[in-house]
Amino acid sequence: MYRWKYDRVAGFYDLLERPLNGFFNPLRKRAVSFARGRTLEIGVGTGKTLPYYPSGVELYAVDGSEKMLEMAKKRAKELGINVNFRVAEAESLPFPDNYFDTVVSSFVFCTVPNPERAMAEIKRLLKPGGVAIFLEHTKSDSKLVDYLFLLPMKLILKPLLDDDPLRETHGLVGEYFEVEKEEGHYGGVVRLIVARNRKS
User: Does the predicted model carry a pTM greater than 0.70?
Assistant: First the structure.
């Protein structure tokens, strides 16, 4: 369902989000600064994180929307960086087990239809000791903020983009990975989580 919605808005998606870039781009830069080695970004969208990856990262990127991925490819070309792009869903990623050193998710789990399955896929793909990085919209630390800000946002974004800003992705991460760092920003409306894959 969400794919055609994102295909529909891909051409002007960056324009819609432009007022938020001053808040989110520094967090995107901080999030991907933790990436090392062979790295996968799921839900790359129009490629807003691409300018911030450290040099030396072998970067792969997937998105369920072909139109959004076209925008990301254009951005990568303009930046002069090599990215292996593929159309794929977060719940079914076309890579072998233990393939990546790092997996990045930036403002994705508020939209993923089956977040538990997507989290299990990330765990499958990560090498033992690999790092999962999440920069996500989440339920805040304040019931008042949730009620006055996030709930109205959900009423707009859910039908438009299947986006649910009230999800508790930060709790879900802890069920699959060992959380090493969690930062709440803007009252927990956005969280940056760095977690380790402790496979036996």
Answer: yes
Give me the number of domains the chain comprises: 1
What pLDDT is stored for residue 168 in this prediction? 73
Please, are residues 44 and 62 in contact by the beta-carbon 8 Å criterion? yes
Residue 16 lies in domain: 2-196
pLDDT at 74 over 90: yes
Give me the phi and psi of 185, to 5 degrees please. Answer: -125, 145
| Residue 58 neighbours by CB under 8 Å, 6+ apart | 37, 38, 39
Task: Give the C-alpha separation, 175 to 17, whole Å.
Answer: 31
- Residue 142: the pLDDT is 59
Place of tokens 């050193």: 101
Q: What is the CATH number of the domain that holds 36?
A: 3.40.50.150
